[in-house]
Amino acid sequence: MPLQLTSDFLKSLHLDRGQLWLNARQTQLLHAIYDFFDVHRDGKWNDAIFYEFMRQSTDLTDRRIIRVFDMLDKGCRGFIVFEEFYVVICLMVAAFNKLEKKFILRHAKMCFTLMDEDFSGSISAEEFTGVGFLWNLEEKQILKIFKEYDVNGDAEIDWEEFRFFAMAALSD
Ligand SMILES: [Ca+2]
Ligand SMILES: [Ca+2]
Protein backbone atom coordinates (compact mmCIF):
# COMPACT_ATOMS: atom_id res chain seq x y z
CA MET A 1 0.00 0.00 0.00
CA PRO A 2 1.50 3.36 -1.02
CA LEU A 3 2.35 5.94 1.56
CA GLN A 4 -0.68 8.02 2.53
CA LEU A 5 -0.79 11.73 3.20
CA THR A 6 -3.59 13.04 5.39
CA SER A 7 -2.81 16.75 5.08
CA ASP A 8 -4.71 18.57 2.35
CA PHE A 9 -1.77 20.92 1.92
CA LEU A 10 0.69 18.08 1.28
CA LYS A 11 -1.79 16.39 -1.02
CA SER A 12 -2.02 19.58 -3.06
CA LEU A 13 1.75 19.68 -3.68
CA HIS A 14 3.08 18.59 -7.04
CA LEU A 15 6.63 17.91 -8.07
CA ASP A 16 8.12 19.48 -11.15
CA ARG A 17 8.08 16.78 -13.82
CA GLY A 18 11.70 17.18 -14.84
CA GLN A 19 13.51 17.92 -11.60
CA LEU A 20 11.06 16.25 -9.23
CA TRP A 21 11.34 19.06 -6.70
CA LEU A 22 8.70 21.57 -5.57
CA ASN A 23 8.47 24.83 -7.46
CA ALA A 24 9.43 28.14 -5.85
CA ARG A 25 5.90 29.04 -4.81
CA GLN A 26 5.25 25.68 -3.14
CA THR A 27 8.66 25.79 -1.46
CA GLN A 28 7.76 29.19 -0.04
CA LEU A 29 4.48 27.83 1.34
CA LEU A 30 6.27 24.85 2.83
CA HIS A 31 8.79 27.17 4.45
CA ALA A 32 5.95 29.18 5.99
CA ILE A 33 4.57 25.98 7.54
CA TYR A 34 8.04 25.03 8.75
CA ASP A 35 8.42 28.43 10.42
CA PHE A 36 4.97 28.18 11.94
CA PHE A 37 5.87 24.93 13.72
CA ASP A 38 9.33 26.24 14.65
CA VAL A 39 8.26 27.29 18.13
CA HIS A 40 11.82 27.96 19.32
CA ARG A 41 12.40 30.30 16.37
CA ASP A 42 15.86 28.91 15.71
CA GLY A 43 15.28 27.34 12.29
CA LYS A 44 15.46 23.84 13.79
CA TRP A 45 12.84 21.21 14.43
CA ASN A 46 13.44 18.77 17.25
CA ASP A 47 11.96 15.27 17.24
CA ALA A 48 8.83 16.37 19.12
CA ILE A 49 7.94 19.01 16.51
CA PHE A 50 8.67 16.62 13.67
CA TYR A 51 6.60 13.90 15.32
CA GLU A 52 3.64 16.23 15.75
CA PHE A 53 3.78 17.42 12.15
CA MET A 54 4.11 13.90 10.74
CA ARG A 55 1.34 12.54 12.94
CA GLN A 56 -0.99 15.24 11.61
CA SER A 57 0.09 14.95 7.99
CA THR A 58 0.69 11.25 7.27
CA ASP A 59 -0.59 7.82 8.22
CA LEU A 60 2.84 6.69 9.42
CA THR A 61 3.06 4.83 12.71
CA ASP A 62 4.94 6.34 15.65
CA ARG A 63 7.80 3.92 15.14
CA ARG A 64 8.13 4.90 11.49
CA ILE A 65 7.99 8.62 12.22
CA ILE A 66 10.86 8.22 14.68
CA ARG A 67 12.78 6.21 12.11
CA VAL A 68 12.34 8.97 9.52
CA PHE A 69 13.57 11.56 11.99
CA ASP A 70 16.65 9.47 12.76
CA MET A 71 17.26 9.03 9.04
CA LEU A 72 17.25 12.81 8.54
CA ASP A 73 19.16 13.57 11.75
CA LYS A 74 22.15 11.46 10.82
CA GLY A 75 24.67 13.11 13.08
CA CYS A 76 22.29 12.70 16.07
CA ARG A 77 22.22 16.46 16.60
CA GLY A 78 18.70 16.22 17.97
CA PHE A 79 17.16 18.40 15.28
CA ILE A 80 16.58 18.76 11.56
CA VAL A 81 16.72 21.87 9.39
CA PHE A 82 14.43 23.04 6.60
CA GLU A 83 16.53 21.52 3.78
CA GLU A 84 16.16 18.06 5.34
CA PHE A 85 12.46 18.61 5.92
CA TYR A 86 12.11 19.71 2.29
CA VAL A 87 13.75 16.53 1.01
CA VAL A 88 11.49 14.23 3.01
CA ILE A 89 8.40 16.17 1.93
CA CYS A 90 9.39 15.84 -1.74
CA LEU A 91 10.02 12.16 -1.19
CA MET A 92 6.63 11.64 0.47
CA VAL A 93 4.83 13.64 -2.22
CA ALA A 94 6.56 11.44 -4.81
CA ALA A 95 5.52 8.27 -2.98
CA PHE A 96 1.96 9.51 -2.53
CA ASN A 97 1.74 10.20 -6.26
CA LYS A 98 3.46 6.88 -7.06
CA LEU A 99 6.45 8.67 -8.57
CA GLU A 100 8.91 7.01 -6.19
CA LYS A 101 10.74 5.12 -8.93
CA LYS A 102 11.28 8.27 -10.95
CA PHE A 103 12.40 9.96 -7.76
CA ILE A 104 14.96 7.24 -7.04
CA LEU A 105 16.36 7.56 -10.55
CA ARG A 106 16.39 11.37 -10.56
CA HIS A 107 17.85 11.70 -7.07
CA ALA A 108 19.74 8.42 -6.82
CA LYS A 109 22.74 9.70 -4.88
CA MET A 110 20.58 11.55 -2.40
CA CYS A 111 18.32 8.54 -1.84
CA PHE A 112 21.39 6.35 -1.39
CA THR A 113 22.86 8.74 1.18
CA LEU A 114 19.55 8.95 3.04
CA MET A 115 19.26 5.17 3.30
CA ASP A 116 22.88 4.68 4.37
CA GLU A 117 22.15 5.62 7.95
CA ASP A 118 25.53 4.71 9.43
CA PHE A 119 27.61 6.35 6.65
CA SER A 120 29.22 2.99 5.87
CA GLY A 121 29.07 3.71 2.13
CA SER A 122 26.60 0.92 1.53
CA ILE A 123 23.03 0.01 2.46
CA SER A 124 22.32 -3.04 4.61
CA ALA A 125 19.02 -4.91 4.43
CA GLU A 126 18.21 -3.52 7.88
CA GLU A 127 18.82 0.04 6.72
CA PHE A 128 16.80 -0.50 3.56
CA THR A 129 13.80 -2.15 5.20
CA GLY A 130 13.85 0.40 8.03
CA VAL A 131 12.95 3.31 5.76
CA GLY A 132 11.86 1.57 2.54
CA PHE A 133 8.23 2.56 3.17
CA LEU A 134 9.15 6.12 2.18
CA TRP A 135 9.80 4.74 -1.31
CA ASN A 136 6.72 2.48 -1.18
CA LEU A 137 9.03 -0.52 -0.89
CA GLU A 138 7.97 -3.41 1.29
CA GLU A 139 10.32 -5.87 2.94
CA LYS A 140 9.55 -8.56 0.38
CA GLN A 141 10.48 -6.26 -2.51
CA ILE A 142 13.63 -5.11 -0.74
CA LEU A 143 14.83 -8.67 -0.20
CA LYS A 144 14.26 -9.23 -3.92
CA ILE A 145 16.35 -6.13 -4.67
CA PHE A 146 19.18 -7.58 -2.59
CA LYS A 147 18.94 -10.86 -4.48
CA GLU A 148 19.09 -9.13 -7.85
CA TYR A 149 21.43 -6.21 -7.29
CA ASP A 150 23.86 -7.27 -4.57
CA VAL A 151 26.22 -8.39 -7.29
CA ASN A 152 29.29 -8.98 -5.10
CA GLY A 153 27.19 -10.89 -2.57
CA ASP A 154 28.31 -9.04 0.57
CA ALA A 155 24.70 -8.56 1.78
CA GLU A 156 25.07 -4.79 1.26
CA ILE A 157 24.01 -2.56 -1.62
CA ASP A 158 26.91 -0.28 -2.49
CA TRP A 159 26.65 2.80 -4.69
CA GLU A 160 27.42 0.98 -7.95
CA GLU A 161 24.84 -1.68 -7.19
CA PHE A 162 22.32 0.96 -6.17
CA ARG A 163 22.80 2.82 -9.44
CA PHE A 164 21.91 -0.30 -11.39
CA PHE A 165 18.87 -0.80 -9.21
CA ALA A 166 17.81 2.85 -9.70
CA MET A 167 18.13 2.59 -13.46
CA ALA A 168 16.29 -0.73 -13.60
CA ALA A 169 13.59 0.36 -11.15
CA LEU A 170 11.78 2.44 -13.75
CA SER A 171 11.50 -0.40 -16.24
CA ASP A 172 10.04 -2.85 -13.67
CA1 LIG B 1 25.14 1.52 5.81
CA1 LIG C 1 26.98 -5.68 -2.49
Automatic annotation (TrEMBL):
GO MF terms held by the record: calcium ion binding; calcium ion sensor activity
Domain EF-hand: 137-172
Entries under InterPro entries matching the protein: EF-hand-dom_pair (IPR011992), EF_hand_dom (IPR002048), EFCAB9 (IPR042798)
Chain segments annotated as coiled-coil in the UniProt record: none
GO CC annotations, alphabetized: cytoplasm
Name of the protein: EF-hand calcium-binding domain-containing protein 9
Biological source species: Hypsibius exemplaris (Freshwater tardigrade)
